C-alpha cells in the first residue's frame, strides 16, 4: 500500500521536498537509510541537559552572563608576556582554549544547534513527539527562558584577550543559528511548540537582525570583502526572513548578488581567500555562504544562483577540479578533506545547476560517509560540513 504524501514543511534551508518524502516513507512503514543512526543521536540529545550561555564560570566583559562570549580561534597567548596578553595571531592554527566550555560559549552553541537540528529532524521524520518535545526544550533554554536565554547580540564573539576594541569578525559564529531557525520551523504547528513560542523566537531573531544592522560590530562585518561579508549577509537574510523583516532580507540578498559576487574572478579564484594559509578551505567556506544565501533568496524575491553572473559556478568548478585530481595552485597548510569541505556546497549547487554533474562528484566523495551524514545531506543540512574545526566539532571560521 502506498503511503499518502505529507505536506512539505515551511523550512528555509532544509530541503522541504526531501523532508516530506522521508516522512512519507517512514510513516508508511518504509525503511530510510541513516534513520537508525539519526535516532541514536536524537536519543542521546533528548536525554542530555540543554546547553546555555549562562553556564560559564566567568560572565562576558559586560558582566552579564546572558551575553554570548567566544575566543578568536587563531589568537594565542604571547609567550614573551607573563600574562600572555595581548594575544598574537597565528593564522590557521586553532587555539584549543577556544573550545573551553567553562569560559566560552562557542562549543556550547555548536552543541545546541546540532542537538536541536538532530531532534527536530528525528521528530519530523518519525512523527514521534519525544524528539519534538526535547528539541523545543533545548530551544527554549537557549533563546527564551528568562534565567538562561542568550542576549540577541554577538558583541563579545571572538574576543581577543588584551584587545578591548570592538570586532566584527565574531559575528560569523552566529551563522550556525540558521540551523536552529529551521529546527523551530519543523516544530511549528506541533503540540511541542506553541504559538507563543513561535512568536517569541521570531522576535528574538528579529532583534538579532536589528543588532546586526545597527551595531558597530555589525557595520564592521557588513564592510568585510571576504567570506565574512558573505556570511554576514547570508545569516542576516535568514534571521530577517524568520523575524519577518522583509526589507532587511531583500537588501542583504541583493548585496550578495550584486556586490559580494565581485569577490570571485572570472576563473573562479577568490583573491581574499586564496591569500590565507588554508586557501582551499576558505575558498570552499565562502562558496558555502554564497550557496546558503542563494537558497534563501527566493523567499525574498531575489535570484542569486542565476542572476549574479558566472562567478558562483566558476568558483565551484575550480574547487571541483581539484577534488577531481587537478592541483590546487595556491599554498595551503591543510591536508584537504574534500568531503568535509565540499559536501554541503555540492548538495546545494547540484540542485541549482543540475547539468553541472556536481551530484556525481558528491556521490564519489561520499563513499565513506556515515549513513547519518548522507541522510542529513539529503535533507538539506549544512552545519556538519565545512567551516573551521574548533575542537571538538566544526563551528567557527575567522579572518
Biggest sheet character: 2 strands, parallel
Radius of gyration: 20 Å
User: Overall 3D geometry?
Assistant: globular
Helices and strands: which structural class? Answer: mainly alpha
Total helix count? 16
Q: According to CATH, what is the topology of the domain at 16-264 and 286-302?
A: Glycosyltransferase
CATH architecture of the domain at 16-264 and 286-302: Alpha/alpha barrel
CATH class of the domain at 16-264 and 286-302: Mainly Alpha
Instruction: Report mean pLDDT, rounded to a whole number.
Output: 94
Descriptive key words:
single chain; 399 residues; Glycosyltransferase; two-stranded antiparallel ribbon; globular; disordered C terminus
Provide the fold topology.
Elements lengths: L15 H12 L7 H13 L21 E3 L3 E2 L11 E2 L16 H21 L2 H16 L11 E4 L17 H11 L7 H20 L1 H7 L4 H16 L3 H13 L12 H4 L4 H18 L7 H4 L3 H13 L14 H15 L5 H8 L5 H8 L10 E2 L2 E2 L5
Parallel strand pairs: 1-4
Antiparallel strand pairs: 2-3, 5-6
Helix pairs in contact: 1-3, 2-3, 2-4, 3-4, 3-5, 4-5, 6-7, 6-8, 8-9, 8-11, 11-13, 11-14, 13-14, 14-15
In short:
The chain has helices at about 15-25, 35-45, 105-125, 130-145, 175-185, 195-215, 215-220, 225-240, 245-260, 270-275, 280-295, 305, 310-325, 340-350, 360-365, 370-380; strands at about 70, 75, 90, 155-160, 390, 395. With about 400 residues, it is mainly α.
Amino acid at each position: 500500500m502506498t503511503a499518502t504524501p505529507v505536506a512539505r514543511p515551511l523550512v528555509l534551508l532544509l530541503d522541504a521536498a526531501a523532508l516530506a518524502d522521508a516522512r512519507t516513507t517512514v510513516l508508511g512503514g518504509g525503511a530510510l537509510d541513516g534513520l537508525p543512526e539519526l535516532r541514536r543521536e536524537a536519543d542521546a540529545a533528548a536525554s542530555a541537559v540543554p546547553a546555555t550561555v549562562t553556564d560559564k564560570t566567568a560572565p562576558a566583559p559586560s558582566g552579564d552572563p546572558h551575553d554570548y562570549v567566544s575566543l578568536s580561534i587563531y589568537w594565542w597567548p604571547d609567550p614573551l608576556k607573563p600574562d600572555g596578553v595581548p594575544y598574537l595571531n597565528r593564522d590557521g592554527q586553532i587555539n584549543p582554549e577556544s573550545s573551553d566550555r567553562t569560559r566560552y560559549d562557542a562549543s556550547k552553541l555548536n552543541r545546541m544547534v546540532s542537538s536541536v537540528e538532530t531532534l527536530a529532524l528525528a521528530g519530523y521524520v518519525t512523527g514521534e513527539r519525544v524528539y519534538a518535545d526535547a528539541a523545543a526544550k533545548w530551544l527554549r533554554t537557549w533563546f527564551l527562558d528568562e534565567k538562561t536565554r542568550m542576549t540577541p547580540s554577538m558583541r563579545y564573539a571572538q574576543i581577543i584577550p588584551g584587545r578591548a576594541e570592538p570586532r566584527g569578525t565574531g559575528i560569523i559564529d552566529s551563522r550556525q543559528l540558521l540551523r536552529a531557525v529551521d529546527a523551530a520551523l519543523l516544530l511549528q504547528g506541533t503540540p511541542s511548540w506553541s504559538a507563543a513560542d513561535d512568536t517569541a523566537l521570531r522576535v528574538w531573531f528579529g532583534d538579532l537582525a536589528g543588532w546586526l544592522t545597527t551595531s558597530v560590530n555589525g557595520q564592521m562585518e557588513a564592510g568585510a570583502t571576504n567570506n565574512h561579508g558573505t556570511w554576514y549577509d547570508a545569516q542576516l537574510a535568514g534571521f530577517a526572513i524568520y523575524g519577518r523583516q522583509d526589507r532587511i532580507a531583500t537588501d542583504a540578498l541583493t548585496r550578495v548578488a550584486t556586490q559580494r559576487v565581485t569577490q570571485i574572478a572570472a576563473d573562479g579564484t577568490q583573491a581574499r581567500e586564496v591569500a590565507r594559509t588554508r586557501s582551499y578551505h576558505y575558498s570552499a567556506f565562502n562558496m558555502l555562504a554564497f550557496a546558503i544565501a542563494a537558497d534563501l533568496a527566493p523567499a525574498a524575491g531575489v535570484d542569486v544562483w542565476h542572476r549574479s553572473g558566472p562567478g558562483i559556478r566558476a568558483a565551484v568548478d575550480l574547487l571541483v577540479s581539484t577534488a577531481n585530481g587537478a592541483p590546487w595552485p595556491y599554498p595551503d597548510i591543510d591536508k584537504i578533506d574534500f568531503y568535509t569541505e565540499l559536501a554541503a556546497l555540492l548538495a546545494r549547487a547540484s540542485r541549482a545547476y543540475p547539468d553541472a554533474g556536481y551530484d556525481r562528484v558528491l556521490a564519489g566523495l561520499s563513499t565513506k560517509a556515515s549513513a547519518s551524514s548522507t541522510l542529513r545531506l539529503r535533507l538539506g543540512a549544512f552545519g556538519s560540513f565545512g567551516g573551521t574545526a574548533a575542537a571538538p566539532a566544526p563551528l567557527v571560521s575567522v579572518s
